[in-house]
Design goal:
alpha+beta; two-stranded antiparallel sheet; 3 helices
Length: about 160
């Protein structure tokens, strides 16, 4: 084998190894975003499917799928809910935002559908956000698995970009 052909083969192998991971299939993906209730109750309307609660929201999300580093299904006094852990920089933003917006609500959107609401009762100091969702209990483990898979994939991609 000629030296040029050998180097070309090595370069191709290295480029193949550096290729990004295959995209997560759409059926395995689930993105989460939180929007803040508009102070005047106006803004983008959102209606929760089970309770029928209708809220006016700020159009810009305050927590996006890129901010979330972990999702768990947890048991609290009132039942099972989702626990979202955000990155350190998002935790600082969440702390400031929740400190100055007590009494308002955060609405959880999963793939663009409003499915949960959380009243801000004080500053969130630890970067952990709990939210009940309006889905059947049997669907919660699968929902969390999709969210976790999406979160892990997005965090890997963000680390690659630096």
């Amino acid at each position: 084998m000629s030296p040029a052909r050998f180097l070309l083969g090595c370069a191709a192998a290295l480029l193949g190894a550096c290729a990004s991971a295959p995209p997560l299939p759409a059926e395995a993906r689930l993105t989460a975003r939180f929007h803040l209730e508009n102070q005047q109750g106006q803004g983008v309307p959102a209606k929760l499917p089970r309770s029928g609660i209708t809220l006016g929201l700020n159009p810009q999300p305050v927590v996006t799928e890129g901010d979330i580093i972990n999702v768990e299904l947890v048991q609290v006094d009132l039942g099972r809910c989702l626990m979202f852990q955000v990155s350190n920089s998002a935790a600082r933003d969440l702390y400031r935002m929740t400190g100055s917006n007590q009494g308002r609500r955060l609405v959880l959107f999963l793939d663009g559908v409003a499915l949960g609401v959380r009243r801000i009762d004080g500053p969130i100091t630890d970067g952990v956000l709990y939210c009940f969702v309006e889905v059947e209990d049997e669907a919660l483990p699968g929902l969390v698995e999709k969210l976790r898979r999406t979160t892990e994939h997005l965090q890997r991609e963000l680390r690659k970009k630096g």
